[in-house]
Amino acid sequence: MTNTKPPVNEVGSAIEGGLKLAGDTFEQAASRVHEFHRAISDMPFKAVGTATLSSSKPIESVHNEITDLVYSAVKEVGKGVFNGAAWAVKQANQGLATQNRRPSRRVAAINSAINGLLGDHLSATRNPIEIKTGFYQDGHLLGLEQDELIQAFPDAKSSLVVFVHGLCCNEDSWFLYHKPEALHTVPYGPRLAHHFDVTPLYLRYNTGRSIEANARQFKRILTRLCKNWPVAIDHVILVGHSMGGLVSRALVEMLEPEDLLLQHALKDVVCLGSPHAGAPLARLAAAGEGLLDRFELSKPVSRVLGVRSTGIRDLQGGLGPLMTSDGHRVQFHLIGSTVGKSTGSWLNDTVGDGLVQMSSALADETGTAQRAAFSQKHHMQLLNDPEIYVQLEAVIRQHLKPI
Questions:
Q1: Which residue range or ranges hold the GPI inositol-deacylase PGAP1-like alpha/beta domain (predicted)?
Q2: Cys staple from 173: which of 117, 169, 262, 356, with CB 3.0 to 4.6 Å?
């Protein structure tokens, strides 16, 4: 039986948080419309002002004052309606009994996508739909006290494989493409646990926050987990997909002398399609925002494009090529892919795997990382693929013999 923290009423919390976010979104949309209105009205006023030696200035001031009042009223009333509804839902939610069942995967997926896009805002406003970072099992956040871990993992192993998902995803992404009738599609975690004495764990985190903030929180909870794990830990291997690889790498790079437990336990970091040198789509969004901000009429559109999370902004340049001098003998394994028919395809440095260029996924200036390149695989296929599994198994074999 899994011991997890009692779940809150899932639907109620989702509605409450969604209403709060809708209020914030309404306010932002009204602000962008206001700015667009002002940009349009400024053009004739400037032209008339030049022709009349600014004699139209009083009219312009009255116009601006009225429109400012109208838009402010619209924003406040609209946001107030949404926040009031959220408060009502919260009160009702507190009176509902909770059920110990697996939360809806669809709700969790939508929530993860929202966190990826606006997670820093959700964190700053303490929105109930912000993801609580931690290790999840059957959709529930695991408690990290020793008795809770003993109950959740009665057959705990001394070697852990921790899976860290990418942007806008959660731990369910590691179970994509699984077909019960096809053994080669069994997800990495259960498959590794079947062949080796390892326990798979799954991190869920708010991907809209900065990579550094997520790495620091990951380090704290991983340290706590290792301290309270039912048996002494020999090996910890991190497997990160996309942004998850960067968060895992950042954790290693911020290890300090007092982190003796993690220094001893962490052996390998596997990065699957991680944009170490940045992702082109993130750079394109930044370039588009900068271009639109140069013109008065398109500035409001630029503001809309600018409403993207810190996590997404961090993907513009990534962490740079691997230059880890962590001193803890952590071995990095960089895996990249291309949608092209061969790893020598011209597509490698254009579209790469569809989201990450191969040169970025394999960016290493240390000369120590183990690197592997694959063709005809898109970004999400790296989450569950027979050839990638072979690579993960090879990493495990460095430390353990098959069962």
A1: 225-282
A2: 169
